[in-house]
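Researcher: We're reviewing a set of sequences before deciding which ones to prioritize for further study. For each one, I'd like a predicted 3D structure that I can look through quickly. This is Pentapeptide repeat-containing protein. If possible, include the structure in token form so it fits the rest of the review sheet.
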Amino acid sequence: MRKSGILAMGLGLMMLNMGSAMAWTDNIRPDQDVNTICELKAGGQCTGAVRIEANLEGQDLSYASMPTMRLDRANLKRANLFGTILQLSNLKEADLTLANLERAHLHAVNLQQANLSFANLSQANFLDADLRGANLTGANLTGAIFTSAKLGGALWPDGRVCSDQSVGTCD
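Model: Here's the predicted structure for Pentapeptide repeat-containing protein, in token form for your review sheet.
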């Protein structure tokens, strides 16, 4: 491989790592948006975009690519996120009431204190996600994957509150 190819690959990896680190920090400003051309629509590409407190109620975002995105405290009530890629994104305290997240890829997503009540989470992948304190009242979890997901304090669809040590399953 040529030197320029190795350098470009290294730069790309560095930018990806910076984006994922930025997605989880509480120390961020909207002016740090690294994707100003993001179009929040079905099939849209919004990697690394910062849309804190965005109002996306009822919006069709199916099959969108939104990894490392900042959607803290966003209003996503009744949004269609079918098949959307959200890995390493921050949805802390977001409202996803009645949202469709069927088959969504939510690997290592921050959903602390998020409202997922009555959401369709069937076949969604929550591998390594943080759902501590999330509200899943009435949510459809059929086939959802919670491997290594932090569930402490989450309100489960059947009314149970997961123990603080719950990981992968609500204990």
